[in-house]
């Protein structure tokens, strides 16, 4: 075990130089209005709403992002997960299991010598019974609470993927054997004295099939739309879902994996839980055969998922480390 002492690095009057990003990355447009065009989809089909399958497919094609409500996950499972993660980040020191989970504070995450304004906890999730012992042991209820949360996320993600399957015209259950909630990445973004200078997360696309994010009532998530960064508003008890690179490939480009980032603010702390629904490491990722024809030839070269993440360094080093850790435990 390695213990990381975590001082209140963010309790400063001015942003330290090594947290200041260049204009190439800097937010600059923090005052843009909350985007009300990111679709909010009611999964219950209640109250005469548009059919969820049609709505999800349309949102995935145009935006690559949508929010879901009436999703069926009990509020207490979500609030418990957020609570225990807040407890974790509030601990004055953290013990890091070098074979299982990774905690990084702001000084450990950087680009070109500049640090992100956040703290991060990352660990594997699949299969839960095989990797739960690799998760944090403190707070003491962490493993119980997070495992219960992940069971619900797995059900929701399969439900959404099945809707996408239907919308694309794929055979039912197409994603069932290739989608796993493999990774949890939770972030906390403390208040920042000058958010125009910093970033919580750099612009990126996700290497997943889909990513399911809970952000509570916290704002800060921004999505690239028509060349502009727009804010994604926080809707109570909603989940943000975005299309990852692998699903864009499988759909042969019909669905879009969109750049997104997180910006900071001066007043509030943002806490979020991202769960990455990925293919298994050995799965061959390629456009679905029924979506390829003379008019729509394949746009992508078949590749194993583990080759993709290693080549693109999208959690690649961490994915390999986790695979090796789980092999050594068996």
UniProtKB/TrEMBL annotation:
What UniProt keywords apply to this chain's record, in alphabetical order? Iron, Metal-binding, Oxidoreductase
GO molecular function terms noted in the UniProt entry: metal ion binding; oxidoreductase activity, acting on paired donors, with incorporation or reduction of molecular oxygen
SUPFAM superfamilies associated with the record: Clavaminate synthase-like
Residues in domain Fe2OG dioxygenase? 179-279
Matching entries from PROSITE patterns are given as:
FE2OG_OXY
Return the InterPro entries for the record.
Answer: DIOX_N (IPR026992), IPNS-like_FE2OG_OXY (IPR044861), IPNS-like_sf (IPR027443), Oxoglu/Fe-dep_dioxygenase_dom (IPR005123), Plant_2OG-oxidoreductases (IPR050295)
Family label: Belongs to the iron/ascorbate-dependent oxidoreductase family.
Name of this chain's protein: Fe2OG dioxygenase domain-containing protein
**Organism the protein comes from:** Lactuca sativa (Garden lettuce)
